[in-house]
Amino acid sequence: MPCLMKEYQMVKVEFLGPIGKSPIQIEALTLADVAAKLKEDKSLTSWLDKCAVALNDTMVNDLSIKLQDGDKISILPPVCGG
Amino acid sequence: MELYQGSLDVKAIFARWLDEEAQSNYGAYIPFVGTIRAEDDIDALSFDIYEPVLQKWFDGWQEKATALGAVVKMAHSIGDVPVHTSSYVSAVFSPKRRVALELIDIFVEDFKANAPIWKYDVKQGKRIYAADRSTPMSGAGLLS
B22: domain range? Predict the structure, then answer.
């Protein structure tokens, strides 16, 4: 009988620039799980729709990406260099 | 790619870049300088940078430049940069002018849109995020 239990990974989420929130560790299978957890945080409500996401310092655009233990997820708010 | 604390020494950077490519047989060298303007009673602008993603962004542009026979260079400030000094310089070298003229345009525009750099106004010692001048990066809203 195959094991059907989901294997959640412990990942780190860091909030860059002006968001001003300390990094957190959460359990997640995919970026969709990360999204669900972050939406519970009222302090992030005004940021999430404007923020891009990097996984281990590579920009990503797919919620179904499977996460590995120790992955680093960065939340990048709107930018203005120069 | 070069990052510095505070204002850039623009003349020194451009002179060094010119020396670096003096024997590369490029016919065109097109520099861009971004200078902090005195407006809205600011004393300075201030910058946060996320270097790992910035480096990958820059490396992607260097690949595009290489494919065109060109090279891109850039330097940016971290922290406070007073008005009338510079926080950003970039340049393109290419064999002929057309490539460099076109590349500096799209390179600088994409820099404004997708380089992971956050800008703050500095007024009376306070650091205020420049939210109204900032642009969501490509793919923003993924987690919303």
Answer: 2-130
Q: Say what the pTM is.
A: 0.94
Beta bridge partners of B119: B47
Dist CA B21 CA B24 (whole Å):
5
Q: Which residues pair with B2 in a beta bridge?
A: B75
**pLDDT for the residue A8:** 86
**A chain contacts of residue B135, beta-carbon cutoff 8 Å:** 78-80
> Does B137 reside within a domain?
no
What is the domain-level CATH number for residue B47? 3.90.1170.40
* Domain at A9-76: CATH code: 3.10.20.30
Is the Cβ pair B118, A49 closer than 8 Å?
no
- The residues spanned by each domain of chain A are 9-76
pLDDT > 90: what percent of chain B? 100
A78 touches chain B (CB under 8 A): yes
Residues in A closer than 8 angstroms to B112, CB to CB, are 79-82
Report the complex ipTM: 0.92
Considering only the beta carbons, identify the residue of B76, B117, B143 that sits closest to A53: B143
Closest CA to B41 of B133, B131, B132, B128: B128
